[in-house]
Design goal:
The structure is a single chain. With 183 residues, the chain is of the alpha+beta class. The protein has a single domain, classed as 2-Layer Sandwich (Beta Polymerase, domain 2). Helices cover 46% and strands 14% of the residues. It has helices spanning 15-31, 68-76, 112-126, 128-144, 149-174, and strands at 37-41, 55-61, 80-81, 90-94, 102-108. It has a five-stranded mixed sheet, sandwiched between helices. Helix 3 packs across helix 5 and helix 4 packs antiparallel against helix 5 (149-174). The protein is globular, with a radius of gyration of 16 Å. The chain starts with 14 loop residues before the first helix and ends in a 9-residue tail after the last helix. The model has no long low-confidence stretch (mean pLDDT 96).
Length: 183
């Protein structure tokens, strides 16, 4: 599907960590104990990894339903719920209008999706070869699918799954478990 929102993968920016901290602290203050964890995830959370310049934040909660404990504070911060998101394992929110591009993924603490997201991030942080492989794929696919976000996501899946298999082996070899929350 063509879009006016082109796919751009840019060089890793050390400022992304600070941007997460600023947004994450606002989320922590607003969500309080409703957020069991608040973590910087996605490619901008991996130092040295080229990425789309989107700050991805995973908020882990005890339950997705009822959603008032996290939905109301996020709405007060003007984050917008994306009801058309087909992934039912999470609740997906976008940045307030006119703000820095930010995606907030609310997942149940301890769920497979929450754990896989943290494992993938930590594996990419630990493996320079995996970072290079992922960055190369993203750059190539961004050129091929520059105006086709859905095509880009679909075409990236084989690389992500291959890296997740490597991450699984790394997890078993290292005894990886999720570290403490980022905030």
């Amino acid at each position: 599907m063509a879009t006016d929102d082109p796919i751009e993968v840019v060089a890793a920016d050390p400022a992304w960590a600070g941007e997460f901290q600023a947004i994450g602290h606002r989320l922590r203050e607003a969500l309080g104990r409703a957020a069991v964890r608040i973590d910087h995830v996605g490619s901008t959370a991996v130092p040295g990894l080229d990425a789309k310049p989107v700050i991805d934040i995973q908020v882990s909660v005890d339950r997705l339903d009822p959603d008032e404990p996290f939905r109301l504070p996020l709405e007060r911060l003007a984050f917008r719920f994306q009801s058309t998101n087909p992934d039912r394992s999470k609740r997906f929110y976008r940045e307030p209008p006119g703000s820095r591009r930010t995606h907030v993924h609310v997942r149940r603490v301890g769920s497979v999706d929450e754990q896989l997201t943290l494992l993938f991030r930590d594996f990419l942080r630990a493996s320079a070869a995996a970072r290079r492989e992922y960055a190369a794929a993203k750059h190539e696919l961004a050129r091929t699918y520059h105006h086709d976000r859905e095509g880009y996501v679909r075409a990236k899946e084989p690389t992500v799954w291959a890296l997740l298999r490597q991450a699984h082996d790394w997890m078993e070899a290292t005894g990886w478990t999720p570290g403490p929350t980022d905030l």
